[in-house]
Write a structure and sequence with these properties.
about 450 residues; alpha/beta; Rossmann fold; Helicase, Ruva Protein, domain 3; 3 domains; 5-stranded parallel sheet; 18 helices
């Protein structure tokens, strides 16, 4: 983060997201402020709260993508939740604190996977020794006429046998590393991780129970193993994974994960406009306002109990988004409005932006289809006029039906290339050129028939 200046953050976001410069600037400043907070004196550090952001704009203009790319850019703990999930069934939705628990769980698993990857070379060495023990068991002690032979009596024989065993073991090691033993079967004792089924009849989610039954039973019940006959290559993977898990200090990983969540966590609250009501005292608006009041302590800063320990939310960055078609941000309760001081309105997308979205980003839609068809040996070429035609039709369909922004391009491209994608494995024509006439021919009927386009596009 020290080297990632706001201008550079915007530059990185430009590689994947077209337009929306104001939103990019706002999130870049918010991200840089996190690094700045770490540099101020410690007594002032805790007083600096994150400046949470509300992104306002129709669906498909890049709100979610901005937040997701931001987290990938800095490798920050990130989770996306729909605010409407908290009012799914009557007045009983998910507990709002579950978003913090989900964030911690994701971060712990991610750090654990990284740690296991880091110790993989050592784990493979240990696994190799265990596998060689399976392939070449230690010989049973030899019997003499008077019983078991003693080391003093047969020292020379034992030394000779040990040398032979060591030589054989090294030969097996060389064969194992070269892959010549991959198809041989070995009997392997594998830890049985299946848990007994426990049904809990409750009107709340498991996250609200305060107890993780799986972990509790895992500690109480003895670990059982079952013997499996597996190929050497698979046995190597199983043993390496087991050793990697044993080499990782879980307690240290959990502590680091909690610290990262508290200092660099990002929670993206999508569809926040769905929990804004008209302040009536009856009906679903009561539930929506209740969700806002439940969210308030989280955004303001509180301590959430998780199975890994308490987690403070004081410095987690909350980025909310919503279309706000029929309501306004001012319809949120005043206390929650105050916790989202930065509001950015995103621009609607037109045909010019659609042309850029199709061609410019690193993950541009046209590049994706080209790569997919290249696997079948088919080279597809899009003329500039064809790209402009797709962009124009996308804008027209958005205007005549529902405006779903850049997501309209996905449906148009699928309709446009359906025949090519279907016939690609068997086609003899290895180069396909898409021109404006082809686009018009494929999409004209669907575009002109408004009723049909509502179902297909």
């Amino acid at each position: 983060m020290e080297d990632l200046k706001p201008a550079q953050i915007v530059e990185e976001l430009d590689k994947y997201i077209i337009g929306q410069d104001r939103a990019k600037r706002s999130v870049a400043i918010a991200l840089r402020n996190r690094w700045r907070r770490q540099q101020v004196p410690e007594d002032l550090r805790d007083e600096i709260a994150p400046k949470n952001i509300i992104l306002i704009g129709p669906t498909g203009v890049g709100k979610t993508e901005i937040a997701r790319r931001l987290s990938l850019l800095t490798d920050s703990p990130f989770t996306k939740v729909e605010a409407s999930k908290f009012t799914e069934v009557g007045y009983v939705g998910r507990d709002v604190e579950s978003m913090v628990r989900d964030l911690v769980e994701l971060t712990v698993n991610k750090l654990k996977a990284k740690e296991q990857e880091a110790v993989q070379p050592k784990a493979r060495r240990v696994a190799e020794e265990r596998l060689l023990d399976l392939l070449l068991p230690n010989p049973a002690p030899r019997m003499s006429s008077e019983g078991f032979s003693s080391p003093a009596e047969d020292a020379s024989d034992e030394k000779h046998e040990a040398e032979q065993m060591a030589a054989t073991r090294e030969k097996l090691r060389a064969m194992l590393r070269s892959g010549r033993l991959d198809d041989r079967f070995v009997d392997l004792d594998v830890t049985d991780r299946s848990m007994p089924m426990v049904e809990i009849f409750s009107n709340v989610g498991m996250e609200e129970m305060g107890i993780n039954f799986k972990d509790m039973l895992d500690g109480l019940l003895p670990k059982s193993t079952k013997r499996r006959k597996v190929k050497v290559a698979e046995a190597m993977k199983i043993l390496a994974n087991e050793e990697a898990q044993n080499l990782v200090d879980t307690q240290s990983v959990v502590q680091r994960a909690i610290e990262r969540v508290e200092q660099a966590g990002i929670i993206f609250l999508d569809e926040i406009d769905k929990i804004a009501g008209s302040h009536s005292s009856q009906g679903p608006d009561v539930s929506r306002e209740g969700v806002q009041r439940d969210l308030l302590p989280l955004v303001e800063g509180s301590t959430v109990t998780t199975k890994y320990g308490p987690v403070k939310t004081d410095h987690i960055l909350f980025i909310a988004s919503g279309a706000f078609h029929t309501i306004k941000p001012s319809d949120l309760i005043p206390e929650l409005q105050g916790r989202f001081p930065i509001r950015v309105e995103l621009d609607s997308l037109g045909s010019e932006e659609f042309v850029r979205i199709l061609t410019e980003p690193r993950n541009a839609l046209l590049l994706q289809y080209m790569a997919l068809l290249r696997t079948e040996g088919v080279e597809i070429v899009f003329e500039d006029a064809a790209v402009a035609a797709v962009a124009r039709i996308a804008q027209e369909v958005n205007e005549s039906t529902e405006n779903i922004g850049a997501r309209r391009l996905h449906t148009l491209m699928e309709c446009l290339l359906e025949d090519i994608l279907f016939e690609a494995p068997d086609t003899r024509e290895k180069k396909v050129v898409i021109d404006a006439a082809y686009v018009e021919e494929k999409l004209r009927d669907i575009k002109d028939d408004e009723d049909l386009s509502r179902y297909i596009l």
